[in-house]
Structures
1.
Amino acid sequence: MWTFRMDRTPGFPAAGFKCDSVDDNVCHSNEYNKMSDMKRFLMEPTHDNTAVDSFLGLGMETMGLSSTMDEFSHGFDFSFLPDYGGLYSCTTQDVEAGLKFEILDGFLDEVEEVEGIYASHDLSSTSNHILLETQDKKKVSELLDGGPYGLMNFPSESYSPGISGSTGLSEWSKETVPHAEHQNALGLNEAGIGRRICPTPLIEDSSGQRMSYDFRPRKDAMKKCMHTSTENTFRDDHLTSSESEDDISVTKTSRTRSDRRKHQRMWTVDEVMTLVDGISHFGVGKWTDIKNNFFHSATHRTPVDIRDKWRNLLKASYNDKHNDGEAEERRKSLARPMPKDILHRVRELASRHPYPFSKSSCFVYDSSRSQSTSKKKKKRS
DNA sequence: CTTAGGG
DNA sequence: CCCTAAG
């Protein structure tokens, strides 16, 4: 089992930015060792995803997507990347890789929305598979050197999901859906997210009955691909075949587009960190900027969503601050243990930026510790 | 259209 | 997450 601890530093390459703090960009060398296992895992085609491919009819070649790759990559707009000296070691090939990744995910999203299925992003393993198959192994290796997953250097939002892997994340991430109703509907929140390997291509409903769907890509699917994200590409899988079946089994509830809270996607730790990074760069309140620069590829996560998340983070960090009581323990047993480091950063940023909470003065932070640790925050816009 | 706030 | 008001 891999245990990728989130010793991510402020300047993590997730967003392709350079922080004004010490470390910046590319993965730190000390992470290489940790990643080696994962790399090996990725390099080994032992996991037969071809079944999934054919099942979904998502074979890149089959769809002739490869031919359109150039078009895609050329039309992709990276102009949003500020010149923070932030270089993302992202070659054209990397971009294509990322695009392939996104495209596949785009189809998945399409499927999810249209069919109402949440086949979960387990299928992203398919993407990896394809990537690994289409790219020169050496090349892939290079890509991976930029991080646990080469495409993680893809300049947009947190492509670092891989790093967050670890069991801790899945524990944490599957909690964020408060309503059991959605949890059920999303299925993947129960077990899907966090384990992306799906040895079995069969999609089953909760009763174990196999279901068949038309996964052929649609016209607008392609269009959507351009802006689809791959945020939920966790890699914390440990091939627990026992759970793999649950990963895929998805329940389709009678939810329509009219329903509010359509797909409440839980925020991953990576996203949160990306958000924190974004806030440190642009400051609180510049949510469109943060969205465009740090969550560009995240179709969901509107500026408002980001703002909301920040609001919640503040609350979380606040709660985390002074509650060591018994109520906390009870809460923690059910909820995810939001990484302390993140909460610290949140608190730090919060002390720096006054959130426009005109009335709620319930967010009080002692500026004592945050000042001592301060030095990485830039200036407000 | 973007943000702040409240639901 | 959603909706709305306000700039």
2.
Amino acid sequence: MLPPRRPLPRRFFARDTVTVARELVGCTLWAAAGGRTCAGRIVESEAYLDERDPASHAARGRTERNAVMFGPAAVVYVYLIYGLHYCLNLVTEAEGRAGAVLVRALEPLVGLESMRERCGSARDAGLCAGPGRLCRALGIDLAWNGLPLGDRTSRPVQPDRDVRVWVAAGRAPARLAAGPRVGIRHAAARPFRFCDADSASLSRRPVAEGF
DNA sequence: GAACCGATTGCCT
DNA sequence: GGCAATCGGTTCG
């Protein structure tokens, strides 16, 4: 049985970033590239705020890289990390206030053949377990930055390449875990990471503390 | 400008 | 568990 496909409205994203991050767990992320459509259930997310959040790219104001975080909600923010991986974020909040949710892991649902092809050897449950792996599995790169969410709002990234990405409803987790964000030093205590505690596709296990 | 480090991953011991 | 890969933003001189 196929997962829900109808896109969530922009107003879902134009809210408090922590609320959006929490409610995204269980939703379905769709991504189409080069005529191949993939989807997965979001099982792990993290909230990144504005100047109030030292761990956020927006902590020190607007730059060329983080500009989309300050724009309208329901837009994709993609950036290069460690010089070799991409991270997918979904912009939140009203226009003018920075905010985004990092999508850290998916349970693969649709297009597993394409994911396997892009990722090489990995168990199916681990194809999208981690922000970098997820982008690789779905074919997401810097060219997607600034793309509005939607199943019709495609953008010809290159003459022969057309991409689209959106989020649909899904199956809410039975046990939603919250805890500190992964791999950050500043504001490390804030419980801005959310995940489905029972998923086999997390980037890492929830730590006992705070769950 | 140079040095340092990051919202990561995969391969090494 | 340790560490290299590899680039851009930030900080410091």
